[in-house]
Amino acid sequence: MTLHLKVWRQKDANSPGRLESITAEDITGDMSFLEMMDLVNERLVQDGKEPVEFDSDCREGICGTCGLTINGQAHGPERGTAVCQLHMRSFSNGDTIVIEPFRARAFPVVKDLVVDRAAFDRIIQSGGYTSVTTGPHADANTHLVPKPDADRSFFAATCIGCGACVAACPNASASLFTSAKLTQYAMLPQGQAEREIRTIRMINQMDEEGFGNCSNIGECSAVCPKNIELENISRMRREYLRAIFKMGGQAEHTD
Ligand code: SF4
Ligand code: FES
């Protein structure tokens, strides 16, 4: 296949960016999208040009670093798929593909297609620790967990922190991400000790980072490579109300 790429090139967050036209030749359907980008970069280097910067790590849909916007869709045209899992057979010979970084004020561009998603790390860090029993190791399975709660927790725990939900949301809301991280612990007995303070701190941090509010559009869940469900956002709102009633909005009571 020969593809006509329009790739976002930007020196840094403070420089203006532009779409650069690059022709990608000898692309096969079995290549992943990132392997196609690797080939493009090899040829740019051979021609003495600067390669296109993009993030990747695991290339197995696990680490969440490979977010790109492809033809206006975060992670591209396939549902439940990270960019690294997207194959070039999803495209046809002669296609034009527009490749841009995830766009949100809280995710400043580092260079080209790389954005700084440290705001997500700060939201997680703000949640603090989860208390555990110290001393002799408890037997596994000593805590009974209802099956539906265990399922909800495990589904929420599959969030890989990629940021596609933010990029797809017209409000650049981080509600799907934050609610998945909250749900993971709120549904389990081990997460009860700091349940309220964790909720208030993470939601406060989410707001401080400049993410917008959720207005129930649902585009976040539609682009999520892990199919994280909107019900997590409803749960986050309930958790917040619960925490406010129990703590009176005070986020500092245990330290
Ligand atoms: S909720 Fe989905 S889209 Fe958002 S960060 Fe997690 S895995 Fe990515
Ligand atoms: S490179 Fe790790 S999820 Fe895509």
TrEMBL record:
<dbReference type="InterPro" id="IPR036010">
    <property type="entry name" value="2Fe-2S_ferredoxin-like_sf"/>
</dbReference>
<dbReference type="InterPro" id="IPR012675">
    <property type="entry name" value="Beta-grasp_dom_sf"/>
</dbReference>
<feature type="domain" description="4Fe-4S ferredoxin-type">
    <location>
        <begin position="146"/>
        <end position="179"/>
    </location>
</feature>
<dbReference type="GO" id="GO:0051537">
    <property type="term" value="F:2 iron, 2 sulfur cluster binding"/>
</dbReference>
<keyword id="KW-0408">Iron</keyword>
<comment type="similarity">
    <text>Belongs to the succinate dehydrogenase/fumarate reductase iron-sulfur protein family.</text>
</comment>
<keyword id="KW-0004">4Fe-4S</keyword>
<dbReference type="InterPro" id="IPR009051">
    <property type="entry name" value="Helical_ferredxn"/>
</dbReference>
<dbReference type="GO" id="GO:0009055">
    <property type="term" value="F:electron transfer activity"/>
</dbReference>
<dbReference type="GO" id="GO:0006099">
    <property type="term" value="P:tricarboxylic acid cycle"/>
</dbReference>
<dbReference type="InterPro" id="IPR017900">
    <property type="entry name" value="4Fe4S_Fe_S_CS"/>
</dbReference>
<dbReference type="GO" id="GO:0051539">
    <property type="term" value="F:4 iron, 4 sulfur cluster binding"/>
</dbReference>
<dbReference type="GO" id="GO:0008177">
    <property type="term" value="F:succinate dehydrogenase (quinone) activity"/>
</dbReference>
<dbReference type="InterPro" id="IPR025192">
    <property type="entry name" value="Succ_DH/fum_Rdtase_N"/>
</dbReference>
<keyword id="KW-0003">3Fe-4S</keyword>
<dbReference type="InterPro" id="IPR017896">
    <property type="entry name" value="4Fe4S_Fe-S-bd"/>
</dbReference>
<dbReference type="InterPro" id="IPR004489">
    <property type="entry name" value="Succ_DH/fum_Rdtase_Fe-S"/>
</dbReference>
<keyword id="KW-0560">Oxidoreductase</keyword>
<keyword id="KW-0411">Iron-sulfur</keyword>
<dbReference type="GO" id="GO:0046872">
    <property type="term" value="F:metal ion binding"/>
</dbReference>
<dbReference type="GO" id="GO:0051538">
    <property type="term" value="F:3 iron, 4 sulfur cluster binding"/>
</dbReference>
<dbReference type="InterPro" id="IPR050573">
    <property type="entry name" value="SDH/FRD_Iron-Sulfur"/>
</dbReference>
<dbReference type="InterPro" id="IPR006058">
    <property type="entry name" value="2Fe2S_fd_BS"/>
</dbReference>
<keyword id="KW-0816">Tricarboxylic acid cycle</keyword>
<keyword id="KW-0001">2Fe-2S</keyword>
<dbReference type="Pfam" id="PF13183">
    <property type="entry name" value="Fer4_8"/>
</dbReference>
<keyword id="KW-0479">Metal-binding</keyword>
<protein>
    <recommendedName>
        <fullName>succinate dehydrogenase</fullName>
        <ecNumber>1.3.5.1</ecNumber>
    </recommendedName>
</protein>
<dbReference type="Pfam" id="PF13085">
    <property type="entry name" value="Fer2_3"/>
</dbReference>
<dbReference type="GO" id="GO:0022904">
    <property type="term" value="P:respiratory electron transport chain"/>
</dbReference>
